[in-house]
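Notebook, p. 212. Picked up where the previous page left off. The plan for this session was modest: take the two constructs that came back from the sequencing core last week, fold each one, and keep the raw output in the notebook itself so nobody has to go hunting through shared drives later. Recording the first one now, exactly as returned: residue sequence, then the structure token string.
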Amino acid sequence: MTVMSYLGAIGAAQKEAMLADERVVIIGEDVEANVYGTTGGSGKSRASEGDFLQQFGRNRIRNTPISEEVIVGAAIGAAMTGLRPIVDLSYSSFLYMAMDQFVNQAAKNRYMFGGQASVPVVFRSAMFYGLNTGAHHSDRPYPMFMNVPGLKIVTPAYPSDAKGLLRTAVDSDDPVLIFEACVLWGSKEEVDENEYRIPFGVGRTLRTGTDATIVAVSGAVPEAVAAADALAEEGISVEVFDPRTLVPLDVEGILNAAAKTGRVVVADPAHRTCGAAAEISALVSEHVFDALKAPVRRVTTPDIQIPFSPALEKQLYPNRKSIADAVRASVGARPAGGNGSVSTPGADAEALSTGAAR
């Protein structure tokens, strides 16, 4: 085991995959210069000995023009003709420019060709929300892609998960989209330096508890864990479950965690309407309704554009306080330091009733 950052774990997984299979290539904007920190050599700069370009050459590390539709289309074609590309698309907000390639080519080609073609390509992108990067750079668009059959959706929250899930993604014969929350890039933990893979559709229980369950996604996961720790000091025992992949989704794991406590809060940094939290809430209500002791609560980002103002933006996303307040409301406890009202981003009752939340 060795301590790795989130980005370091991704770099380690990419290097393992490239050493193991010469069909694995990396393409994207500025990957040759290691601008985003996942194609370097143990943190060394482009000029230092040992970066990916020097180790694998330009045939396997290739810069691309700033054209997401071209990048995604080229990667799909390369995958269909025998390579296994890893594509660095930088900002998740830029995926919109390549929607036709994602939806009509990557997702459908196996079906359209009667199973004679596969599209083994991994698309990595980073969600820069919470960093005051403005409306054009702060999206968390994974729910849009959950709605596209044929795509697998991965949202790792910890370095060890990022490494193991990326190795599984490279092995997949279907297109995989990995969404990385940039607020997690600097997080560190001990990671196995040996090869390992984490199967898709298998979630992770981060805390065990008996009073309430938090199902958290991506950047909301560490906040959910912090909320659970704070609630434990108040005598409220909370289970925290991270599905890790949204397609396929660990439905059985979510339902078991929900039924165990009967009180469920879903924390999701994406927008509220038709988000991952909505899908998870629906599954819980549909399948374990009889076990519920309180309504399922969602802590999400409101359905608004993301402001540039740091003071405004930081109020929008699920955080340890809003998640903890939702749990307290679910178990009938008063909010910490509050007057009995519950402040839940994306779930304000008055805003919902008047439509102002849209």
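Okay, moving on. Second construct, recorded in the same format:
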Amino acid sequence: MTNIAPKSISRTFINAPIETVWSTLVATDQPLPFFFGAVCQTKNGLEEGAKMRMVNPNGKIAMVVGEVLRFDPPHCYSHTFKMTNIDEPPCVVTYELREKDGGTEFDLIITEAIEGSKLHKEMLSAQGFISSNIKAVAETGKPAFTGRMVGLLGPVFALLAKKKQRIENWPL
């Protein structure tokens, strides 16, 4: 029997309007430093029921695939999350945004991950990176140092990708 891990919430205050944080989070036309330099792709935009994938900037490697579960601008975006290099069931990632004290309270929530799984461990370790880099981009227009370094390593990540991660194996 598999055990589902408890909900994990990473909360960050971002000193930027909620609309700025939202548009930064859901951009689909550029590499996103807070998502390890990946570009979010969909067929017809982000909407409930749409398939999405996060693709290496070279356009040849799908890093993450999922389905949009909820899309309620500018307050909630939720999708299934499967890393293409890990043979495990997906978890669910939810981003919740609230206006607070002249800025935005941003929650990154992980649910439905299998306790102790590789995916769960990867997700937990990435929460801080994603939150700190979306904060930096929304507040300054530039990623944090960690986001810039990961961006520089994007071509290396593509070289290390498994054959099964090729984009043609993960259609939209």
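Notes on construct two before I forget. Residues 8-159 form a domain with the Alpha-D-Glucose-1,6-Bisphosphate; Chain A, domain 4 fold (CATH 3.30.530.20).
Flagging for discussion at group meeting.
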